[in-house]
Amino acid sequence: MKVPGLFIALIFVAFAAHAKHDSDHPLSPDDWEMVMEKVVLLEGSGLMPTLLPVIMGNRDTLQLTEDQISAFNTWRKKNYTHVINLMNEILEKKVRFRIEALSPATTGDHLVELQLEIQEMQRKLMKLKLSCRKLVVTTFTEEQWENFSFVVSDNPRLASLLSQAGTLESGHLH
Prior knowledge:
This protein is about 75% helix and about 0% strand. The protein has one domain (about 1-165). Residues about 5-20 have low confidence and may be disordered. By secondary structure, the protein is an all-alpha fold. The chain has helices at about 1-20, 30-40, 50-55, 60, 65-100, 110-140, 140-155, 155-165. It is built from 8 helices and no strands. The protein is elongated.
């Protein structure tokens, strides 16, 4: 019973974050921090970390240009809803999988099919997140990458990933 309750809470959080962050207006660093808090709850739905809220929440430290901010806001406007919807669908399907796995009436073939559906949604989510990563990789300067390494090391969720990765090649995340 605990898992469905958690799922319902996550859906509520995602929908609450949806309206403001899918709009045309630029988000303040505090708005981006709120996005990050909401997205972290859904982060387990895919492999690729969510970088844009961290970047935009630290726009001053990273010394983002107006063109970069505009490009990141354009990406958000185009993709935010789809990313959140996919994350929610993946979590819903994972909960369904876990519940159905406990039923003796559920066949192994059915569970394999559910797993394949989850993996396909995760692939779609990763493609969307990779489009954001590509935007970051192609627009950041060398100095911004160095500053980003500092920002990541100060972010507990991302710092643990960074420490596991060992060293950064040429100051870039690959």
